[in-house]
Amino acid sequence: MKRFKGFLAVLVTLSILGLAGCGAAETNSETKSTLATAKERGYVVVGFANEKPYAYQTPDGQLTGEAVEVARTVLKNMGINEMKGELTEFASLIPGLKAKRFDMITAGMFINPERAKEVDFANPEYRIGESIAVKKGNPLNLHSYKDIAANPEATIAVPGGAIEYDYLLKSGVPLKQIMTVPDMPAALSALQSGRADALTATGPSVQATLETANNPDLERVMDFAQPMIDGKEAVGYGATAFRKEDKDFREAFNTELQKLKESGELLKIIAPFGFTEQELPGDKTAEELSK
């Protein structure tokens, strides 16, 4: 009996110590910011959606792309030397960030008011327009989203959660003509197989997708007319995104990003991914683009 009582006493003591340890861990994690944690451990976990040229994995598993390389340089200048990529579908990026699956999003995501309600964007890294790819010869004569809306036989593939989905709807394209897919490789597969008549994304993304496919039966529509959304030509500004509570992380990121813009280094970083001086964001800020 004494042994049993002694055993119970040990269990109670261990339980109290265990609970105390858990409480300390929770307190520490609650008081330490994402930025402080990242600097301490020397790396960040980034969410990306495998979309060229913004963020994607090379055949040997390396994470690269316009958004990735900009973030990599900025983070190194902040004293964080490693990035660990977490691949997910585009539509899962913001939910994953909020759920703390990763520390930031590097996916070339466009800044807009709806997304800004969910996350805090850094200032933009680039500005870009839309594009489509079709079968060689453009058999359905598609040169705009309006052309797709006017042709009930046309189906267009677009990654779920991408801004192009909204642009298509606002351009009058019926839901039944929009094929939502997980990512750009899936959109390419739909076009190649004939399940879709076109795919859409930003210009650099469409270009990179076609270059990867190296398929002579596909082509980019070079005279594509940019959609007019709410009376304005649709031009997107892409940026890294952070959780709402990580304002110190975002501000530190913005400070280093601004240095890259002013020195001309930003263009050098993004040029290998098909971006030119025309794609530089100018003086636009996340604050004004989020309104």
Protein model, in words:
By secondary structure, the protein is of the alpha/beta class. It has two domains: 35-127 and 236-282, D-Maltodextrin-Binding Protein, domain 2; 130-233, 3-Layer(aba) Sandwich (D-Maltodextrin-Binding Protein, domain 2). Helix content is 42%, strand content 21%. The chain has twelve helices and 15 strands. The strands form four sheets. Strands 1, 4, 5, 6, 7 and 15 form a six-stranded mixed beta sheet that branches. 41% of the residues are buried. Residues 1-24 form the signal peptide. Keywords: Signal. This is Ectoine/hydroxyectoine ABC transporter solute-binding protein. InterPro entries: Ectoine_EhuB, Solute-binding_3/MltF_N. Residues 43-277 form the Solute-binding protein family 3/N-terminal domain.
Task: Indicate how many domains the architecture comprises.
Answer: 2
Main beta sheet: strand number and arrangement? 6 strands, mixed
Q: Could you list the spans in which at least 5 consecutive residues all have pLDDT below 50?
A: 1-29
| CATH fold name of the largest domain | D-Maltodextrin-Binding Protein, domain 2
Classified in CATH, the superfamily of the largest domain is Periplasmic binding protein-like II
CATH class of the largest domain: Alpha Beta
- Gyration radius (Cα, Å) is 23 Å
Mean pLDDT: 89
How many DSSP H or I helices? 12
CATH hierarchy: architecture of the largest domain: 3-Layer(aba) Sandwich
